[in-house]
Structure formats: C-alpha cells, structure tokens
C-alpha cells in the first residue's frame, strides 16, 4: 500500500512541477531597517517573515526536475537605501559539500550559489554574483543572448558557513555595484542558481530551458522595490609598482640589470543612473600572464588571448561586429616601420608600445539604447640598432597612436537589436590612418525560436595610398528546440581590411555555411546529454571569382552517467585553390585531406582526473600525415593545494607548404615537423583572499625540410632545380615561468608579487631529441623579472562617511 501511495505522490509532484515550469516565478520585495551581519550565520531577526524562494528546477542533468527535499535551496532577499542583502540556505550532507579554495573569479571544484539581477528588466542584460562553498567570489555581466563576461568585477561582501544541514551564505551587494533607474517603484528581473559539484547538478529558481535560446530572458521577477535611489558611483584605485629586470645583454654601455617604478590610477565614475566612465591612467600590465607563443608556419597572424583586465572587463558593446582585437593596443600593434633600420643590426626591439591611458564610457538608457565610447593612446615604439662601426642609435618603428571606438546598440523586442559601430586609428606623422564602420542587426521572432542577423561593414585606409573596402554577412535559422539549423553567407572584397584595431586574417572571399544540430537534453539510461552537429562549408574567391574550398564536418558529443564525456568528429576537405599559402597571390592547388578526432573529458569533481584527445589528419599529396596526442591530468591534494600537467605531442610527416620566396616565385618544401608543448601549473591558496599560482611552459617546434618544389603558374608543384637552398630549417624553443602571489587585503584592494622568467631561441638547431632542446633553452639567456604592485580601492561614499564620523 505504501508503494502505491508513494507512486501516486510522485505523479502529483511531477504534474505540479510540470505546471510550474512554464510559469514565471515572482518574489515580493521587502525593505529592512535592520542591516544583517554578513557572517554566513542566518540568525539575524531581519530574516524572519521574509518571502522564501525555493523549489529550484534542474537545468542539468534532468532539465525541469524539481530539486529534492534533502537538497533543497532557500533564498531570501532584503533591501534598504544602500544595498541588497541575500540569505541562502543550501541543504545537503555536510561531508558531501565541495569547497576547494581558488583565487577570486574562479569556481574550482566547489559548490556555488548565485543571484542574477536584471535591474532594468529588459530581459537582455544582467549581473551575476556567485559565492562558492569555500567563500570565493565570482561575478559576471550578462548580455542579450546569455553571453557571460566573467572579466567584469564589482566590490561586494559575502560570507559562508558549513554546518550540520549543509552550508549557508550571506551576501551584501551595494547599489554602487549596479546600474538601475530612479523610479519610485521598480520591478527587477531575478534568478538564483545553485551548483552541486559532485553530481554536476545545476538548478535555477526560475526554470531555464536549455532548448530555448537565451538565459536572461528566462528570469523570474522581483516586484515592488520602492524608493531606492542610485548612489554616486565614484571610486579610485591608485597603484604603485616596482620592477627589477635582468637580461644578459653583455654589451658595452647596455645594463644587464634595470629597474623602474610605476604609478598610476584607475577611476570609475557613474555619469548617471545608466552610464559609467572607466579610465586607466598610466596603466601597468607587467604582471599579466605571458602569451603562449608558437612557431607559426601559416600565412596568417596568430591570435592570442587578452589577459589585461581593463581590455576584457565591460567590453561587450565594443566586441560587437568582431572589429575590436584589444591586443592591438600596446601588446600587438598592427603597424611597424623598419625602413630606418636598413642593414644595421637590431640590438633591442621593442615589442610592446606603452599604453599611456585608456578610457571607456558605456551604459544603456531606460529605452534600451546602449552607448559605448572607447579611447586609448599608446606611446611611440623604438628599436635600438648598431651600425657597422659599432655605433648605437634608436629608430622609431611605430608612432604615437590613438585608438577610438564608438557604438550605438538599440535593444528591440524579442531580444533583438540594431547596432552601429565605428573604429578609428590615428597615427602621428606620415603613417597611415584607419577607419572601419559597421551596421549590424539581430532579429528574433516572438518565441525566440527563429532568427535572422546580418552586418554591413566598410573599411577606409588613408595615407600615401587610400583604399576603401566592403564586407557583408547574413545568417538565419532556427535557434531553439532540439533540432537547430542555420544558413550563413559572408562576403569581403579584396580591399576590406579592419586589422588595424581588429583581428582579420584575409579578405576577398564569399563563404557559405549550412549548419545543423540535434541535441537531446533529457537523460537516458546511459547518458545525461547527447549533442550532435553537421556543417557544410563552400567558399569562393570574390574578385575574380574562383572556387576556393569545400568541406564537410560533423560528429556527436555525449556526457555519460558517470560524468565522463566523449566527442568524436570528422572532417573532409576537397582539393582546393589556396590563394594565401604562396604569399604572392598565386594559387596553390592544395590536395584534398580528411581527419578525425576523439576527445575524452573526465569527471573533474574527482581529486585525480585525466583526459585528452587524439587527432589525425592526412593530405593526399605525398601521403602527408599529422598526428596530435594531448594528455592532461589534475591532482587536488586538498582544498588548498592542486597541480596540473598538460602534455601535447604533434608530429607531422611529409607535409607540404610554402617555405621561402625567390624573387616573385614561391618555393615549397616537403618536410617533417615535430611539436612538443608541456606545461605545469600549481596553486596554493591560503584563504579565499590569498594565494599563489605558478605556470611553467616549454614549447618546442621544428621544421626539417626534405625536398623543395617550385610553384608553377597553374598552381601545381614541380621539382626545384635552382641554386642550392640552405638555412630554411627551423628549430624554435620558448620557455616561460609565471609565478604570482596575490593578497586581497581589503575589498577591491590587492597586493601582488610576480616573478617571470622567459627565454626564446630561434634558428638554433640542437637536435631532434626533446631533452636536448629543453636543456638548450634552459641554458639560453633568460629574461628574469621580479615585481611588486599595490593597488588600493577607495570608494568616495565610504571616504565621505569616514570624514563625517571624524567631524
């Protein structure tokens, strides 16, 4: 009898929960006159008689399932004139709660709770505040279709406690961390999310359907917020830093050891309720992690990740249209002029231009108009050279440069938008200037099921020669449901060039892509999630029209019940006309190729986990083969200490590519190549506010040419019979150590100590043996740097309160 009652009860619960999924949840706002103590202990009287948000829905592994009673979540929210206060009780077995200590803005192997708010309730933009069971904070901004900007940082308070019922959390979010209107009565978009790491379970208070495109648009509602006023948002973050650098130049008149002191300040000012000014004056980016440099044998530039916080935080408006590659500003400039160097020997080449200042103004009006203004100025770059007589001099290789971006982004109904964006690069002197303008649109139907988006772009380069180029793109399809599809077309003429402030590999193309996805989010008896895709690419050169390439690609991804996952994909590329490999515009008839890959990822909740991938690709010509074996392993000793090791081995055999030029003729070679990349990382986190990390990376890659060929006018290769070629083999090594200690000694304030070691060798042929290359790079001249930086956060309102108390 009990069994039938239980079954009947479960059926009722399933029916009720099914009804609740489609209904938007609401939580009544309650004002408090008593400020809770943010200590993680939920015993403040103000929490009594406050509406409770509970009955969270899973998004994974069982979308729509209501959380169980013994794993239930209870959330409460209060507000007053200065802040929002959050109460969170997460029921669980105390010994099962994951709580690894990691640095701020990381989750690690830990459970978390979060609150996501949409103060303007436009269902497009929001702010998320996450706290792990170890007390680590993570915050992010969310834009129209659920894009997460994890680089956004705010200053707020939180505290957690573990007890016999699970764990608890209290949060204080000051209004200075948010943007909202000054209306007397407001309704905010609201959602809560919880993750249980060991079972990879994530739940939301208001159901977020994985089959529906978007995230913020599936929020709940916080109603009846009364009489709150946006505060003056003004903060200063002055810093000082000191560096000692040693490099064995060993040249007369050039010091091996140098030192420098820096000072500057970041300023954040709320211009009004909606717009914020961010400014960095004489910034210091010397402590950011080193770029992972590689031996690049392709005709295209390598794109690196941006690690400088100012250029990653709050840049969602400027990233629209793919016209903003922030590494152009200081780190990887697009313009170098070595005409003044001549035949002189380069002694010291400046690879980064000093950023003198940078400013961002961004925000969105109550009517949904987003406005972004960006400006940055970099100093001139100089290269030190030595002439035949041993005289040293400096040559300007890049002038003083000004970078600008202007964006207008109008939000429309149904998560749609229309955007105007302009980027402008102005250089001092005779160097050319660049301007790019784009119009973008993104339209969704009422149910957010179908979409169409597109762009029109124009580039204008002005200097000794003037050129104007054009590009357009259009894409439409189905974006919600289990079955998804899209068709896209991209065009660029032979003069379109946005690379002065953007990242762009080539122009003069007409690409068409047909894309299909079939996803199953409902678990079965053996998997939690099954995803699959298939796409077809057809590309032509635009001017003059000519076939370029055709490829098909596809494969499935599955997450198993044990939380391991696997992905298999295959790709076939037909014989193609490659107009870029020759470096002179001549066509190269590249052979057809095919490849496949297998990716294995473990259950990362385990203290020791490992995974990796195997990839294979074969070229028809000379039966060229490429293998890639990647293996990683992670070991978590305890919640404070963890290690990681990544090993990558990538051998190529009988591959054919361009190697050099002889006059206007392109020379190709058949070669073997071996690439080995090993990296080791470790972290020791003392508390949720203090810890250190270290990353060691060694990269070795070579090119051993076996035969040479001449590219014929018809695009085929013929045996090279010219003068003997030499010096074209390559052997490149790079070694880096990045060690940094960080202490957040006050809200928003940090002390960081960084040690860096870097070495690079090129065209130095040791041996084919890996250990000899490692020994060689370790014995090569090392560039060592030790730095200390102190940044102190000052909130003007807090400073004002302290002054009043003193008076």
What does this structure look like?
Residues 1-18 form the signal peptide. The chain is globular. The longest helix has 20 residues, at 2-21. Among the domains are: 26-230, Immunoglobulin-like (Sandwich); 247-262 and 580-806, no CATH class. The chain starts with a helix and ends with a helix. The strands form five sheets. It has a 24-stranded antiparallel β-barrel. It is mostly beta strands and 807 residues long. It contains three helices and 44 strands.
Q: Which terms summarize this structure?
A:
24-stranded antiparallel beta barrel, globular, mainly beta, 53% strand, Immunoglobulin-like, 807 residues, 3 helices, nine-stranded mixed beta sheet
Briefly characterize the structure:
The chain is mainly beta. It is built from 3 helices and 44 strands. Among the domains are: 26-230, Immunoglobulin-like; 247-262 and 580-806, no CATH class.
What's the arrangement of secondary structure elements?
Layout: H1 2-21, E1 26-28, E2 57-60, E3 73-79, E4 83-91, E5 112-118, E6 126-132, E7 137-142, E8 148-149, E9 157-163, E10 166-174, E11 185-196, E12 201-204, E13 220-226, E14 234-246, E15 257-270, E16 275-281, E17 345-349, E18 355-364, E19 369-378, E20 381-386, E21 392-398, E22 401-412, E23 416-427, E24 433-444, E25 450-462, E26 467-478, E27 483-492, E28 509-520, E29 527-541, E30 546-560, E31 565-573, E32 576-578, E33 588-590, E34 593-601, E35 608-619, E36 625-636, E37 641-662, E38 665-687, E39 690-711, E40 717-719, E41 730-746, E42 749-761, H2 770-779, E43 783-791, E44 794-795, H3 796-806
Parallel strand pairs: 1-13
Antiparallel strand pairs: 2-12, 3-4, 4-10, 5-6, 5-11, 6-7, 7-8, 9-10, 11-12, 11-13, 14-15, 14-43, 14-44, 15-16, 16-18, 17-20, 18-19, 19-22, 20-21, 22-23, 23-24, 24-25, 25-26, 26-27, 27-28, 28-29, 29-30, 30-31, 31-34, 32-33, 34-35, 35-36, 36-37, 37-38, 38-39, 39-40, 39-41, 41-42, 42-43
